[in-house]
Amino acid sequence: MTHTDSSRAPFNGAESQTLASAASTDAEIEATIARIVAADDARAARGRSGRAQQGASEHDGGDSPLGSGRALALSDLSQEHSRFDGAQEDLADRRALRRVAGLSTELEDVSEVEYRQLRLERVVLAGLWSEGTAQDAENSLQELAALAETAGSEVLDGMVQRRLKPDPGTFLGSGKALELKDIVEATGADTVIVDSELSPSQRRGLEDVVKVKVIDRTALILDIFAQHAKSREGKAQVELAQLEYLLPRLRGWGESMSRQAGGQVGGAGAGMGSRGPGETKIELDRRRIRHRMAKLRKDIAGMKPARDAKRASRQRNDVPSVAIVGYTNAGKSSLLNRLTDAGVLVENALFATLDPTVRQAVTPDGIGFTLADTVGFVRSLPTQLVEAFRSTLEEAADADLLLHVVDASHPDPEGQIAAVRDVLRDVDALEVPELIVLNKADIADPVVVDRLRHTQRETVVVSARSGEGIDELMQRVSELIPRPSVPLDIVVPYARGEVVARLHAADAEILSTEHLEDGTHLRVLVKDALAAELAEFVVAS
């Protein structure tokens, strides 16, 4: 859509006409300003999301995809789980404590305290369109809306400014910042979320204008991680990332952390009696944060040997390892459940599962391997998280094969693939063989699926929910993982039946079997370690 830089993108018919008339006055600047309806309108729009999206595609200036009531980063699934996902008890526990709209935290009766649910934070989104297309800017804001909803907030409105680079003082331009203040006042929002990482000065400058709390994309993602981390290691990694983010942004509030006032300050009311320790409290807080970070790094390093020992055991036994990687909400956990009946938590939300899960699996021809689920990725994944989760992401770097799961129903699957590969490059995992798994084929556009199959080298089309393409996926995994490669021709005495049983395990491949007078004659493919154990049974050629 085309409009002036100071306009806001509406989501109803009357405002749509206003936008069209404003757009005609300035055709040189294209901007995308996506607004999200207030709570009541959003709930009503969910029932007609299909019509709203169709209207957006038929004409410029029509309903934005944000007006459909559901962020495009979340899948439009009629059924969230399959029988392979198990009882999902963890998900039931999580949803039992979820925040809900319309509930106040003010209690009329003290007996209500154990049943109280927190009111949703009411947020307004803001972003810049500095590169790419208008659709890219809309997709980015859609993803921010999904992140905000996952964190437990109610998205009321959104705006995007067409600007080549952020304003050094307030991120948005001065006029657009004042417009954002008007939106905050009109909607009654208590938080502004910016679709980028803000410097400390930009956050303070924007807060001074809009008069409500301002957080950036990085802080939002860290908050989601803090809510969803369950394991001891995961909690430590998230806390370390949060402290790394907080340290340069720590600032004083009020007189308790005010700067020392040197000399006679006259009208400021300080002067004699005000000189002294000054910023000591901030310095103490920074020192405490640094000490806590040092302890967390030591704790995480102490957890690493246990994981390394398990990995070394698998490598010693030549067990092939396959790691599932991909964008958040692409269906990695659903795929793990489908292949191994792991029963890990599955939810149509961003970063629903953070803790890695490793399960055993077997190919159709009986070769065993391990399947590891990893944390999801996202565009502009905070560097603090990449560093904190580096030990976890080593599972991907040390794997024999990567199953790169892609949400084929997403508006920008190519962007997701590029974002995942950026993170894989950071952890030195780009050299690992990669198989692109185009998931959610049951709801994806066939044209998009065909395009991805032609642009990506190794692809398999599946649906973890319906089971479509799973057999083909397992066959491709069987072809790509390391297989037993040492051929042996052996005769095992009948008294050594345990040796024959050992060859029927998942790390050997039996080519032929023949029963002779003196024992069982087998032609097999085995791994190096097992070949040494079977040397006494080898038939001389």
From TrEMBL:
What cellular component terms from Gene Ontology apply here? Answer: cytoplasm
Q: Where do Polar residues bias regions lie?
A: 1-24
| All copies of domain Hflx-type G, residue ranges | 320-485
Region Disordered, annotated ranges: 1-25, 42-70, 258-281
A Pfam family assignment: GTP-bdg_M
Query: What keywords are annotated for this sequence in UniProt?
Result: Cytoplasm, GTP-binding, Magnesium, Metal-binding, Nucleotide-binding
Family to which this protein belongs? Belongs to the TRAFAC class OBG-HflX-like GTPase superfamily. HflX GTPase family.
This one is known as GTPase HflX
Lineage, uppermost ranks: Bacteria, Bacillati, Actinomycetota, Actinomycetes, Micrococcales
